[in-house]
Please model this.
Amino acid sequence: MDPAHLQVDRIHAWLSGDAYWALGRPRETFVRALAGSRSMGVYRDRGDGMPGEQVAIARAVTDGATFAWVCDVYVAPEVRGIGVGGWLVGELVKGLEAEGILRVVLATRDAHEVYARLGFEPLANPSTWMERDRRPQRLPAGAATAAR
Model:
């Protein structure tokens, strides 16, 4: 999907107001994040070949060659539970793999089953991963963070 179709104000409202991992994220920060990512959306069908209202977003931060991190996966409440999020992430990952990007990670607090159906599994060796997280709203140690 053409990034020009992303409905930035709508997505920012979802993430900054409802997504536990992005609450309060400033619009300027979100716009910079979009610019540095590969993003896909799902839209209602208007019937004229053009996308209607956006109902979901997923983005991937990637070097374009070896690694990608899927994040900011959000599905509008009115279309949750019908497979939109899983389909969207599956399509995003297919696109990344078609470019030769064979290592894709994500983090979730509550959608492990959705991502397991797409082939995601717990890190093989989580003790090798480290982070430096200076966000003011950082969750307590041991709490899962990032994308749904």
Observations:
- Residues 144-148 have pLDDT under 50 and may be disordered.
